[in-house]
Write a structure and sequence with these properties.
48% of the residues lie in helices and 12% in strands. By secondary structure, the protein is α+β, with helices and mostly antiparallel strands.
């Protein structure tokens, strides 16, 4: 008899999804290395009319938030990234194996969590080793530039978007309800 899913139980087989996190970390590190070695700092290399490669160093968080703080942000954001990655790891380990037809989208949740973990760790590595995050993807339109970002940031955004899509379109939105018999 198979054991039922129990609250608080860890499903260690979910660690298999960390291959995706490792892929994100590897592609992120490789692309940042290439950008750091082949681009000149803050000098755009135009690829299209709306996309440049521009090497920048982000000492803050998203959109350079707190980039000009006194230096505490390096360690503050590093600790935050570590806590987020650890929390996501626990969440991943607590997702039971999907029963046939019982839970739609469980794979999407696992992919989303793995992407976010990979992105968080990719940027965490930069913060710990360099003191800043390497950004180089620069989209623009008619003189307006989106803040530069990197592969890790992209993985985080895609992961969060998948979680939102799951909740909007596949999640039931209702907790399990017990039906009282009359």
């Amino acid at each position: 008899m198979n054991s039922p899913n129990k609250p608080g139980q860890f499903y260690w087989h979910n660690l298999n999804w960390l291959w995706l996190s490792l892929l994100v970390i590897g592609v992120d590190a490789g692309s940042k290395w290439l950008a750091s070695h082949f681009l000149q700092y803050a000098r755009p290399m135009e690829l299209t009319g709306f996309f440049n490669l521009t090497l920048l160093h982000n000492h803050g968080a998203a959109f350079s938030f707190l980039a000009n703080a006194d230096g505490w942000q390096r360690w503050g954001f590093a600790v935050l990234a570590f806590i987020v990655a650890l929390g996501l790891m626990v969440w991943l380990l607590r997702i039971p194996r999907a029963q046939a037809g019982a839970r739609r989208g469980v794979g999407m949740i696992k992919v989303a969590i793995a992407l976010i973990i990979g992105g968080a760790v990719g940027n965490l590595i930069d913060r710990l080793t360099l003191g800043y995050v390497v950004d180089f993807l620069d989209f623009h339109w008619h003189g307006y530039h989106w803040p530069a970002f990197n592969v890790a940031d992209s993985a985080i955004v895609i992961g969060v978007a998948l979680l939102i899509l799951f909740e909007l379109f596949l999640g039931t939105g209702k907790p399990n309800q017990e039906h009282a018999s009359s």
